[in-house]
Amino acid sequence: MFSLRSKMFLIVGCAVAFSAAPIIWFSHKALLERTLEREEEAFVNTVMLVEDSISVRYLNLLTSQVEAVLASKDRMRRTAALIREQVESEGRRELGSWQAALRDQGMRMACFEDGRPVAEDELVSVMTAAGTEDFKGQSLHDMLSGVYGERDIRFAVTGVHAPEQSGTQPFLLSFSRAGRGTLVLADPLVNAEEGRKQLERRLLDAVQERLEDLELGQGASVAVLDGKGRLLAGKGDLSGVEQVPASWLEKAADGPLQGIEEGAWNVMYRLVRFKAMDWYVAAFVPMSAMTAPASRLAAQQLCVAGGFLAVSLLVMLFAALRIARPLRLLARRARELAAEDFGVEHAGLAEKITRGLPVGRHDEVGELSGAFVHMAKALDENISRLVETLSVRQRMQGELNAARDIQMGILPPAGGALSCPGYAAAAFLEPAKEVGGDLYDFFTAPDGRQAIVIGDVSDKGVSAALFMSMTVTLVRYTLGEGLSPAEAMSRINEMLARNNPSCMFVTLFIGLFDPETGELDYASGAHCPPFVASADPAVPVRALTETSGPLVGALSGMEYRACRVRLETGDTCLLYTDGVSEAMNADGRLFGEESIADCLNHMRGWTPDAVICGVMEAVKKHRGTAAQSDDITMLCFRRA
After folding, report:
1. What is residue 370's predicted lDDT score, i.e. its pLDDT?
2. Which tops the pLDDT comparison, 160 or 469?
3. Alpha-carbon span 493 to 501, nearest angstrom
């Protein structure tokens, strides 16, 4: 279905594909795994960097607030020391000036002596009224009557409702000695709520500034969310960030949450909670962006493999054309050679076939061309010899066919036995070759009895046929002189052994059967034992195993004794050669004499022709597809 060129293209293409595909697949797989590991590490590092940045800036902002409180305390200490020195040197008359000056700076001042104000401030009076406490639960009114040393100063933080502001305004209070009284200074602090908002704004500004410095991949995003999942700050592709499931935030509250969300989102995510502000740092990287380097490498490798395949196919095209062109010429010359008539004389065949073939090439195509030329010459010579051989064979076959006709003409027809009351006979012979060595005969002896003869020559072919013809002639001659079967066999043995340079021999059975009495006088020269089947099913099939002497024609001087058996009315006698009992199937198993006896047992009362046909059918069934290895001959007669 495919030309040589197509097959070579297919082989090269498959070779390149099968070599490149595993490399691309394994390298893509290894790079993808390594890329995912690196991206995951970078991913985690980015989130941790943002988290650490938030923590640092939060601590810095807290530190600045603490420093502001400490600065306020230091200012109060200095201010209290100045007021105390002035009170001790000049008295209380300058306290009002201090109150006005401090009010301009946002501070409040009051002075109490025995719990009563000597320099009164309404706001301080409200904060130190009886029953008020600071944020630690200490009574501020009790701190007015406290005993303070010269350098002792105590601080407290409390809140008071400020009409100009919404909510409670926190104040830092300081209590120290001033003359015989207690000096109270109040410095307002930033409102807690306002301070938290201010801290959050400053922190978000710092976080957003830090996020802007980050380098994110395509489609990646980093965001800061509040406790309800609202976006506070971020960078990158922030579409869909506020759609983070609430379950993720709940899980991230217990610890860092990281994973891969497949489906429509198809991202790697990480959520970390910043507990101090109840914020969440969320980072997202699309899986397509993480696998893009591996995909680009695979695409580059595919391009390289495709280019290599194209170059290889071009080289293979040149090689295929160089190989296919002379092969096509060889195919055309082969068709021309097949069309040649080798039965007629012709000249210049080798030159005609050789013309244009690349016999001078030093590769396989050149060798093939040379072999083709040599084949043409040898074919011409061989066909000439074959024509001559066929002529001889046809002549020999004709002679063998003539010999077969002559041989079969010597023997009586298979159904040519004399029909008389109480006697019926039939015979069958099938040579393994054109001519064979088996023989049979039946005729009427001079004394009126029916002669029964069957034999098997030791060889096959033409020599066996000649030996068989001589044996049949001698049997007819001896019985025609009135000799008994035993005498006739002795005479035949002497005559065959006298001129037998090839040491051939024959197994021979000669019988004279009297239909009226059923007496069978016979002599058996080492022939296969005949079987006798009675018409009565109760009588078993028996074999005539008695022999008269050895093989006939091998040695001279042999004596053969006479044998006699009586056949009852309806008895059938079957004589056969070893081609029947030794018929072999494909497994090497013989038909055997027991099988012959079984056939006769089922054919009681059959005519001789039917018995022979039945046995032959059983032999063919047993032999199956195996070839016939020996001549097959059977002779059957019946006392009717």
Report:
1. 74
2. 469
3. 14
Task: Domain 64-194: give its CATH code.
Answer: 3.30.450
**The CATH number fitting domain 211-290, selected from 3.10.50.40, 3.40.50.300, 3.30.450.20, 1.10.10.10:** 3.30.450.20
What is the assigned CATH class of domain 411-638?
alpha beta
Task: Please state at what angle helix 593-601 crosses helix 608-623, rounded to 10 degrees.
Answer: 130
Q: What is the mean pLDDT of residues 426-452?
A: 88
Most confident of 71-80, 323-332, 361-370, 526-535: 526-535
Domain ranges across the chain:
64-194, 211-290, 340-406, 411-638
Maximum mean pLDDT: which of 132-136, 138-142, 277-281, 586-590: 586-590
The answer to whether the beta carbons of residues 512 and 563 sit under 8 Å apart is no
The 10 Å Cβ neighbour count of residue 540 is: 10
Mean pLDDT of 304-326: 73
Q: What is the pTM of this model?
A: 0.46
What integer best gives the mean pLDDT of the chain? 80
Q: How far is CA 44 from CA 35, 40, 269, in A?
A: 14, 6, 9
- In whole angstroms, give the CA distance from residue 632 to residue 640: 26
- Which is nearest to 511 in space by CA: 454, 439, 558, 457? 454
What is the enclosing helix (H) or strand (E) of 386?
Answer: helix 364-410
Contacts 24+ apart (CB under 8 A), 85-89: 87/111, 87/178, 87/179, 87/183, 88/179
Asked whether the domain spanning 411-638 has the same topology as the one spanning 64-194, the reply is: no
Q: How many whole angstroms separate alpha carbon 76 and alpha carbon 172?
A: 9
Give pLDDT, residue 195. Answer: 56
What are the φ and ψ backbone dihedral angles of 524, each rounded to 5 degrees? Answer: -120, 115
Separation CA 236–CA 281 (nearest Å): 14
For residues 211 and 235, give the distance between their C-alpha atoms in angstroms, rounded to a whole number: 6
